[in-house]
Amino acid sequence: MLTLKLGKLKDLILQKAFRYSEKPPFKLTSGAESPFYFDLKTVTLDPEGAFLVGEIIFDIIKDWPATAIGGLTLGADPIAAAVMHSAWRAGHRINHFIVRKESKKHGTAAWIEGNVKPGDKVVVVDDVVTTGGSTIKAIERARLFGLDVIGVVVLLDREEFDGIQNVIEELGAENVTAIVKRSDIMERYRRNNQ
Questions:
Q1: Can you list the domains of the chain with their CATH numbers?
Q2: β-strand 121-129 against 148-157: which pairing, if any?
Q3: Is the bond preceding 155 in cis, omega lying within 30 degrees of 0?
Q4: CA 32 to chain centre
Q5: pTM for the whole thing?
Q6: Nearest-angstrom CA–CA distance, 54 and 32
Q7: What is the pLDDT of residues 87-99, one digit of tens each?
């Protein structure tokens, strides 16, 4: 069943989120240019995409001792929400937390939003990893808040700039999973465009 869901997710990413050009017209967050571009919000904010993402990631983390899942807003938000709902349907409680890009300017001046407290074991998620910068920022902010980051799950590894390796080094553990790799999507793209 998981293999079927993963295949459907890859098809959705190819159909809705993937852009490719031999000329590198796409400027990335890091400032680099690339012939590949992934807008995964078109998948994570789609009903079928959100369902698939939630089910697949929950299947990966269901035996981890995590009480919450989240990451840097905006890319992580729909992913964490989807996992929270999948967990709930399966009889598990996994709260969703959000790491702000900047602290609140009023009230508690918090970086972290949600039903989490220092000491909670959490999973950090992200939509796309290139250099790993936004994922690492989420890990750092979660740790500063006192959360125990026990793993990272990313929806897509661009397989560039050592992003996943950078995240593994920051986390200090091998508990880092990429659901889909750029090469998976390129293989489908080439097969469809022969």
A1: 40-181 (3.40.50.2020)
A2: parallel
A3: no
A4: 20
A5: 0.93
A6: 30
A7: 999 999 999 999 9
